[in-house]
Amino acid sequence: MANNESAVSQSEVKLTAKDFSTGQDVRWCPGCGDYSILAQMQRTAPDFGMKKENIVYVSGIGCSSRFPYYMDTYGFHSIHGRAPAIATGVKLANPELMVWVATGDGDLLSIGGNHFIHACRRNIDLKILLFNNRIYGLTKGQYSPTSEKGKKTKSTPFGSVDYPFHPISVAIGSGATFVARSLDREPKHLQAMMSRASKHTGIALIEILQNCNIFNDGAFELYTEKDTKADNVVVLEHGKPLVFGKNNEKGVRLNGFNPEVVSLEDGKFSLDDLWVHDEFDPDPTRAFILSRFIDNNALPLPIGIFMQIQKTSYDADVETQINNIKTSRGEGDLKSLFFDGNTWEVA
Question: Where are the domains of the chain?
Answer without folding.
Answer: 3-240+278-323, 242-276
